[in-house]
Amino acid sequence: MTIKQRYQAIIDWFETNMPTAQTELHYTSPYELLVAVILSAQCTDKRINMVTPALFKAMPTPQAMAQSSVEEIYEYIKSVSYPNNKARNLFGMANMLVDVFNGVVPDTMEELVKLPGVGRKTANVILSVVFDQAAMAVDTHVFRVSERIGLTTGSRTPLDTERTLMKHLPKEVVARAHHWLILHGRYVCTARKPNCPECGIRNVCRFYSKTAK
């Protein structure tokens, strides 16, 4: 099987079985999604969705968060991973949004990564989900699943994976492909033990082809 054939078979399966894949984080505005994604680093979406309703009620806008304090933000997010760092980053992010971007979440990679707590992965999530750009955010699920099923070969870094996926995926499916791979990694192709018997793409999966022999 060629790499082109594997990509096409995987795209076709997900197009049929998961046509409207989207983030599991709850949000109602670009600002809320940005906050949720910053909080979600090394933490589950389920936990973030438990924390953000009260946070967003107290600080519904960048301006409101900028007028609060690191200590106040911490009280709302203390149950997530690394709450001290994330509280500082959220406070800094909100202030920069207000002071530099007039309270509007920017729509370019160059501008987004200037915000405290925003790296390339977070920026790509915002670009794809909010602005519908062909941007591939690579988290641990995307990195692992892409290598395991054979979309990448020998990727050493998330950037390696991002570049390979962007090279082979049609632009119109990139944003959804990000969610396809995350959800597949979260519920089927799990880190410790992939659930191959329940996997719809096992017949074109490099890992399965090796382990099934």
Q: How would you briefly describe this protein structure?
A:
The protein has 213 residues and is mainly alpha-helical. The chain has helices spanning 3-17, 30-40, 45-58, 62-66, 70-77, 83-101, 109-112, 120-129, 140-149, 158-168, 174-187, 206-211. The two termini are 16 Å apart.
What does this protein look like?
With 213 residues, the protein is mainly α. Helices cover 60% and strands 0% of the residues. The chain is built from twelve helices and no strands. The chain has helices at residues 3-17, 30-40, 45-58, 62-66, 70-77, 83-101, 109-112, 120-129, 140-149, 158-168, 174-187, 206-211. Helix 2 (30-40) crosses helix 3, helix 5 (70-77) crosses helix 6 and helix 9 (140-149) packs across helix 10. The protein is elongated, with a radius of gyration of 18 Å.
Strand content: under 5%
Distance between the termini: 16 Å
Total beta-strand segments: 0
Query: Please, what is the oligomeric state?
Result: single chain
Low-confidence stretches: none
Topology readout:
Blueprint: H1 3-17, H2 30-40, H3 45-58, H4 62-66, H5 70-77, H6 83-101, H7 109-112, H8 120-129, H9 140-149, H10 158-168, H11 174-187, H12 206-211
Helix pairs in contact: 2-3, 5-6, 9-10, 9-11
